[in-house]
Amino acid sequence: MKRWILRLYAPLFLSGFLVTAIVWVGHRHGDPLWLLAFLAVAIAFSFAAERAWPYDPAFNHGQGDGVRDALHALVNEGLNLLSIAAVPLLAAIIPWRVWPAQWPFALQVLLAIIAADLGITLVHYASHRIGWLWRLHAVHHSVTRMYGFNGLMKHPLHQAAEAVGGVLPLLLLGLPMPVAAVLAFAIAIQLLLQHSNVDMHPGMLGRVMAWAPLHRFHHMRYGTAGDVNFGLFLTVWDHLLGTAFDAPDYRLGQRDLGIGSQPDYPRGYAGQLSAPFRELPHGDVPELPEGLRRR
């Protein structure tokens, strides 16, 4: 029974909450604000599942990071809410409508997810190669345990950069506000799955979807060894970029996570907001364990 739960957890979690959002917003024309309540339910479910079927029980123990991560989530989801509320204002000043609004709502959401996934993945890829973007993105990489809430932990300016790369082009094409709301919700759900501490084993689907078993390797502390598995939803972008990586026999632990050259990276919320604009001490990059070397 447990084997099937761990195999089906990720696809059912994503599809269940996404279908609920599509039906509520797209077919019942419900208030998109209720998606915040659905997200709260998803977060609670994620926490419960991580305690029932943990990948690493140590990841469930706080490191004084609970309040900080909650603040990151509240601020970033609040900014998402404001950006969604601004969609009608943007639509009022755009004279063209290229978006296929005549398509079924679910297909519009799928198109938005794939297009945004490509844009966000490219910004993510650039964030590991362009200094000022990395300084913003480093906040997310400072975590030393993997659990669902980590996905919502970002510097707000880096979240804005991802939105410019992944969502703004869609808005300029005339993305409707209801589709934008479900897209933002889908991204939050996927981020919970990417960083989950559930010991999921999604099988073949796990090679297509960028869930935790692959994304954990992106958080390796061993310098550029972590420049892998950039995709948000799909792994196809990493195969095209040549950055796909898996080491199925290696179980990552707290010793493997964080920023190896900056073990003393600020841990408080205020310190992380200011960190990209300060000179922080750097040390040597730790040696990559044999089990994580790319072949």
**What portion of the residues fall into strands of 2 or more residues?**
under 5%
Let me know the average pLDDT: 94
What radius of gyration results from the CA coordinates?
A: 19 Å
The run of helices and strands is HHHHHHHHHHHHH
Helix coverage percent: 40-55%
> Helical region count?
13
Tell me the distance between the termini: 35 Å
- Summing up helix and strand content along with how strands pair, one would put the structural category as mainly alpha
Largest sheet: none
- Described by the principal axes of the CA atoms, the overall outline is globular
The low-confidence parts are none
- The overall strand count is 0
Would you mind describing this structure in some detail?
- There is one protein chain.
- The protein has 295 residues and is an all-alpha fold.
- The protein is built from 13 helices and no strands.
- Helix 2 (34-52) runs parallel beside helix 9 and helix 3 (66-85) runs antiparallel to helix 9 (177-194).
- The longest helix has 26 residues, at 2-27.
- The mean pLDDT is 94.
